[in-house]
Amino acid sequence: MIYFNCDYNEGAHPSILHMLEETNMEQTVGYGLDPYCERARELILEQCHAPEAEVHFLVGGTQTNTTAISSVLRPHQGVICPDSGHIQVHETGAIEACGHRVIPVPSKAGKISGEQIEEVWRGHWEDEVHEHMVQPKMVYISYPTEYGTLYSLNELEEISSVCRRCGLILYLDGARLGYGLCAKGNTLSLPDLARLCDIFYIGGTKQGALFGEALVIANPLLREDFRYLIKQKGGMLAKGRLLGIQFVALFQDRVYFEIARHANEMADKIREACVRLGFSFLFETTTNQIFPIFTKDQIKKLEKEFNLSFWEKVDEERSAMRICTSWASTEEMVDILIEALEQL
Amino acid sequence: MIYFNCDYNEGAHPSILHMLEETNMEQTVGYGLDPYCERARELILEQCHAPEAEVHFLVGGTQTNTTAISSVLRPHQGVICPDSGHIQVHETGAIEACGHRVIPVPSKAGKISGEQIEEVWRGHWEDEVHEHMVQPKMVYISYPTEYGTLYSLNELEEISSVCRRCGLILYLDGARLGYGLCAKGNTLSLPDLARLCDIFYIGGTKQGALFGEALVIANPLLREDFRYLIKQKGGMLAKGRLLGIQFVALFQDRVYFEIARHANEMADKIREACVRLGFSFLFETTTNQIFPIFTKDQIKKLEKEFNLSFWEKVDEERSAMRICTSWASTEEMVDILIEALEQL
Amino acid sequence: MIYFNCDYNEGAHPSILHMLEETNMEQTVGYGLDPYCERARELILEQCHAPEAEVHFLVGGTQTNTTAISSVLRPHQGVICPDSGHIQVHETGAIEACGHRVIPVPSKAGKISGEQIEEVWRGHWEDEVHEHMVQPKMVYISYPTEYGTLYSLNELEEISSVCRRCGLILYLDGARLGYGLCAKGNTLSLPDLARLCDIFYIGGTKQGALFGEALVIANPLLREDFRYLIKQKGGMLAKGRLLGIQFVALFQDRVYFEIARHANEMADKIREACVRLGFSFLFETTTNQIFPIFTKDQIKKLEKEFNLSFWEKVDEERSAMRICTSWASTEEMVDILIEALEQL
Amino acid sequence: MIYFNCDYNEGAHPSILHMLEETNMEQTVGYGLDPYCERARELILEQCHAPEAEVHFLVGGTQTNTTAISSVLRPHQGVICPDSGHIQVHETGAIEACGHRVIPVPSKAGKISGEQIEEVWRGHWEDEVHEHMVQPKMVYISYPTEYGTLYSLNELEEISSVCRRCGLILYLDGARLGYGLCAKGNTLSLPDLARLCDIFYIGGTKQGALFGEALVIANPLLREDFRYLIKQKGGMLAKGRLLGIQFVALFQDRVYFEIARHANEMADKIREACVRLGFSFLFETTTNQIFPIFTKDQIKKLEKEFNLSFWEKVDEERSAMRICTSWASTEEMVDILIEALEQL
Asked: Where is the Aromatic amino acid beta-eliminating lyase/threonine aldolase domain (chains A, B, C, D) (predicted)?
């Protein structure tokens, strides 16, 4: 059985394990104040061209989202989110559990526009009794989106400018950031994110780390006391250096981007095979996630050999599956899958 | 500089790193449903003699406490806790952030008694307007306590019986559980905990794991939907097997207890040296934490070579320091420390 | 200027003021344990044919909804609600502030069906990773709805039976209950509500009281410790008898239903005039709320003399307004309005 | 049976009922935006000499405390409070339910000092790992205290100056404010409160209103979006004018202070009788609450005729009772009580 269902089926990229081992017996202080976290922060800020920004390391995505959002919103404020956004769909109401409404907006292939955001914002303030309603104060988007799609630089600039005009905080979930930044057709860079977003995170878990996310707080107004929030929400590892070490490993020789490029290439091979074989897609993507549409029979056959991710029923006969590659997807695995696709 | 300030200065016990590496390229499902988590659950339940109990793996202590407590309390209910308890002192109000009051009770060397618990409970119900007050519904204790001290089997049985009589849920924080179970004078066993507590956790982070805690829900009434809570509170690792693997490594050859015994022996050596040299202690302990009292000058000298943990001012001239050993404390390190103590 | 914008423009029905005055100097115990609250409970339970149910009095609607919902849900659970429901639209995220997601379902004229509820429930449980999502555990509906429309007995029975089959708690917001129960075409009774719902409330604020809502907990499993929740959420009046007195005044001679009938009759007169004059309606209603559609010019003219409630733009030229009657709407006021409508 | 157990046994001061009746049929807008609320705001601000401050009306004390505190604290922040404070003792964990810890400080007769506050604050910031602990950010005190005692102007100035130096928000609960401001020995005025506190409230419920509290936000930094919070926490009455009307009635002819003076005089008479008869007191007070100490037998006798409030056991034989007067306590009632005391 070969797994293509997600990008976190294996352990960690070897360079990470290697560094964990190498440093294992060193003694350092805890809670993210060690030299490895310091070094990882420097590397990230350099690559973001944002020497003044603040970087914090957290364990996982839900935790990072919860911590960031609850740090900046007041009790009556909510966060605008594509209806496909992770905090809306797959975090068991973690944001609401911290007291805030997620305000879903209809998305197109996982994306929303600046115009949609402005409309929600204006709708709130135009209402005479706006204080009877949740006040939109933050915007959550993902890059790439949960459907593997990408915002263009223009689109992100528009969103950012709407947010600034409306006093909305822009937060970008980069759980799979590298796959986006290294994808064909990508027009964004880390410095763009640091310039256009108030807060964003660079995901490790889904991109070669054992676990871990690096949160960048670009807006200085949002930094106060952030470490308290990390501790309260359970994100402050006693052995905090584990996060620092992993991000040093990922960022010192640009391993993070190599991983992404490799995974994207593997996805491209599968994508091209699908096109060649006449399969259509639920979403057009250039990242490490592909959403080909198969018939029930085809799925049944594939599932004998492969663990894919069921995504969505398309009609009575057909469904979209998610195929996902990662640093650990080998040419060999991909060739076996393509062969199987050819024999459907 | 040698660190004796805590038990999480290094990475992980070699057996853990070894197993992480060995399994690194295996593909498994995520979120704690993999075979390693399964195996770790079996091992733990066997050693608890509690085949019917449920085991969940979480990342850290604050998260485990928050998840367990918020899973079982209703909004008007609070948790009784020694005034030295971790949730009262060192978790940035994580329990309150989930809506519940921590009700502190004066502790003796980190411990409270069944009698004290019953008094709080009775005080609540005897008040005519009890519904104007937080209802005590849970008891939180630690073993060993935050001060390294131990409850006897008799004491825990009394606490447990008070809790059952009063309808209070008994929760035991075992962040350093092994050090307690392997200490001189310990009278408790894992099966005792499974029998006497409703919920307890077996700590990994402070006992040789990179991170991770194993929560045992002994009381079947408290199990429903627990995985939702783990996800919501950020404790559900995508690569959940990392937790399973670590607990297999710790429990399959009783490494967990070896680690504890080793650390306790190293602490014993230091403790005996302190006694021999005439230092007194803030608390009498037999676990891996020692709290000797030094003068300002002595502390100054020690701090040139050693990273100890400042605990508490005793008088104008003297303070208690915490010295903490772990799996990673070598005889050599301990000897250097003893030598330094001798030269004070 | 005559107000028809809502049903809470005046003070209280004279019988209430009268009774408040009459009892003013009596001394009673506080917090809802006085003889007036007792008597009001009896009257309500009699009229519900539910001698075993529990009645609590709270101050306002948002508070009642928040208290009831947070009393029965666990942290990972949410409440299904028509997208037009009050808790979704007009309570400033009060439910989320208690930690729970409101799960909106597209409504037709304010109503949802048993089928829609079942679909949400089934969608949750059929998903493989349901624990990554908010668990639907409660259903919130209003009678009459926020748009003045009514569920039939059949529809409510279907909803109730879906809820019981799916283990969902059924909660009915009766902020304007009397107007519904006394409307033309109504097929429901108080005993039906007590039989089909787990919890519901009988609204006072919008039906002649100064303020106050009577919450009926029909399901005995949901009663435990409810008074703690009332206190915590700010709903326990020191002078609790004020609520008891008002509900005695409303229920002892069926004043509550007289008020509703009068308001509905006044609405009928206006409605019939609108029909006669050729105005169309945004929703078809038989209760005290009417939603006629006017042109911009017509609205401008009306607003010189009347305070109506802007509801919704229908097209570039026309908008729906809400006209609302109450116990305090006189024939004279209604005639003046009709005359104005005739002159548009 | 005559009630002296509290100051909310009767309805409202006649001037309030009178004004409610007089205005009953007027039509006004809702939610606190009506002319009566406007007028009440003006009256209060005039008497506070604080034309720039903001006044909001809420229904009850727990609600006011919860709304004010949750409006200004971030999730990791807590509120310092005398251990006898209402939010600590008698609000069913309402503050914790909004996510914040109440940090109790040992009180003397209900009071704490600036020095104690500074010590808690310094203790937090001096700790190396302060981010592992709840950050004290607000101070809650009551005037008069829950034990009927008073801060002097000097004491309040010291507290205020500590708060400003330490960046702590000073919040004063004035549930019984008038009794304090009109007591013998009082050295404070409304303008002092507006000058020294960031937020405080003027209680109506316990001082002649049916219900209602007037919250004064003196610090302009704390005003933003406060009406959202009122709505969310259930404090925004649909018929908001009921609050405005009551505070106009209380403040237009200084009825509020007359009520207080009368109640204090009645208390003085009882107090003097107790002194004369040789009873001692649990606390020395000059406000409307008296805490004489009686033997079991004496209490038994008194309870045949009077409803007093049991306060606290003093020793095996004796307990303190609370005797409380109000606007509604007549000379006659007081004489009967004194007679009974004489016959004990």
From this structure: 25-291
